[in-house]
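Schema walk-through. Below, the input block comes first and the output block second. Nothing else is stored per chain. Lengths vary across the set, and this one has 804 residues.
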Amino acid sequence: MCVSSLLMRWFFTVTTILVLILSPNSSPGEEIRGVYGVPSLQALHPSNYIDRLNHAHINAVFVSGDRETVEWFKKNGFKVYVSVNVFGGTEAWEKYPDCRPVTAEGKLLGAASNGQGSGGVCPTHQAWRRDRLTHIEKLVPHSHQENGIDGIWLDFIRYPGLWESLKPEIPDTCYCPRCLQTFRHDTKINLADGISGHEAASWIKEHCPYEWMVWKKEQIESFVAQVKKIIGNHTLGLFLVPWTKGEQENAISFKIAQDPFHLSSHVDVISPMVYHKMCGQPESWVGAMTEYYKETTHCEVWPIVQSLDCTAKELSNSIHYAGEAGADGILVFSFKGMNSAPLWKSFDHFQPPPNLITNSEFSVCEGTTIPTGWETQEASAPEKMKSTFLMRSLAELTRDEQRRTAREISTCLGISAGNDQAGMWFSPLPDGEAGVEYLFTGDFFRDNCENGVYPSISIWGQEFYLNTHWLMGAFQPLRVYVPCPQNPSDRFFRFVNPHAGKTFWLTNPRLTKSHCSFYESDPLQTNAPAFFRDCFPVGVYGAKDDTLKELRETGINTVIVGGPEASLRKTALACQQLGLHTVFSVPRDPDRLPLFLSAVTDLVQPGNTAFYVNDEPGTHSFPLNRAHDINQLIREKFPHAATCMAVVRPQVCRDYRDSASFFMLDQYPIPYMPMTWLSDSMDQAAASVGRDRLASVIQAFGGAKWSPHGWPRMPTWQEMDCLAFLSIIHGSRGIFFYTYDEIGATDKGRESLKRVVGRLNRLAPWLLEKNLDQEVTVEMVSLNQFDPQGRAAVHCAIKRKDQQ
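--- output ---
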């Protein structure tokens, strides 16, 4: 790589280059491999084990911080880090008795008969916070010296609780007088003065649990931000409790107050403590958790895995899964557990999947104007008709001045397409493994959205139309699954914009081997026999309290309800009185969802209530980790309730297959698209998630206000009828009409809906039966025999009920 290219790379990936400069043992692109708990020179001289470190390609150590040990490892080419206990243990209790947290029962932490547990310090205790910051300041000056430490990891940066167990013990804290006073002052919430911790906990739970949770997280986040100011450009990492927001009723936010995604904006690395044996998890869980954090954190992810009490195979598997999930580095807890050569050899299994995209950072060599290894398509056209090829930083496009990670300040390639049909960046691709599936990911940007106007990519000669690119004014992460052909017709990656006058941008392109999901599928979810117990849902969007009775008389049996708690409760109770099933539209925020679920618990009727968890998540690239959290929180509280999401682009069902029981395909074809847009989409979705997990949303809107968006008129009853029965033939397990606000606004609309719903209800006992896996041969004798794909113009399916 030329010198100017290295300089450009330094400019756009500061964190990565600092690693290269500070670590003589590192080579370009080499990931961190570190060991926690390496003994001091006085306890055990490294000459006793240095060969094992070198053979395992270890380039980072966590030590106690004494100068002699730090200098020895620095002189021998290692990165050296120190861990600092922030709010853990009982050491501070003697010096500061009032730093001991108070539980929701009004007792001091550890005062119960079961002992003191893991201890803990109240995060609002200012004297203790100053002590910790002073301690960190004393460590930092050494890091300015040639043989000083390279960074600090904060441990116990949270509220107290013992999580390293099959039965975690997480108390609800801290309700001490200082915390209550500070909360009252910071939030202006009218919490009574002078009440006990137990009384305060009860009042907060009833009146402001969300605000309390947010405030607790701020106490942790503010300390992390202070530390970052102290250590400056040196690496700051965090050891995190390995819980998702979807488990333990989101205790990671509500009790521990350790939000990995918020905290990641202040640090360089997060290290989830994925100790699988302590937590009773399989080794694959390490990969699942790594992937969970990697998707939406703003920093690097170096999971720390368990070696204590592990066999070499278990450690190898853990390290392998972390690498497969894309970990930026790997740490092992701890040196004490690395007591055999096979355990050290486990590091060989840390192999993050290589990115096949050439020069994905878009670095430029001196004397050139385009990234090394990339080209643009030339066109023999007048200058004013030619496409324009652009380069910008992400910061320039988003105009966001907040602190950015290396990923967020990356270079972007743009295409402003002309009329020359030559708007294309391309670079060579190495051969992949034939028959193996690869995953392409990249962040795409557009200033405005227009239906039918999307960029494309081509990989090994296969073109992919990125019709999920709907976000405007922000980078949207997109995903494409790519089978590697036996004999590629084209050995290039191509970024294409064929739309004259439109501009698209790309950054962070990656093409890596795809892997199977690390999550174990929920059998109640993936094999759900029906949407509701003994009921095929024929439902509507847009129901209101004053229309529920007429909907029931129309034959509708299900409504989707949402909104503020008071109005939702009123509507749900009215539905129950009328015998209508309900689908609750839930908050799409895992930090708000537990409170919502608690509020509707008494309204949930087992077998007759479902939850609407998302609306077209693919078109706004709703984070997969967040979607999984939402589904998991619901399944944890209501194990047998169905969850569902509407999906307009069927290819995204695969990404969200662990985030919903049912996928409601909502293609609206009238009047410009063929009816089979819906059935074709259902077939495509079925290939990813199975046909038994599909429902359908039938277009029941249109008119003047919709005309600019492609729906200038309302569908006829025959068109709605065709769509409804077409979806049944292709496996629909529930039908919903969008929307009663529109179709129910006129007598004609209501009559059309009633006619279609009546025809469905006449087949009600049959609708619960799954279609037989039996092809039906159709011979057409009319003039309109085939659709454009050559298929019979009539679609058929067979159902069996008893002997019929």
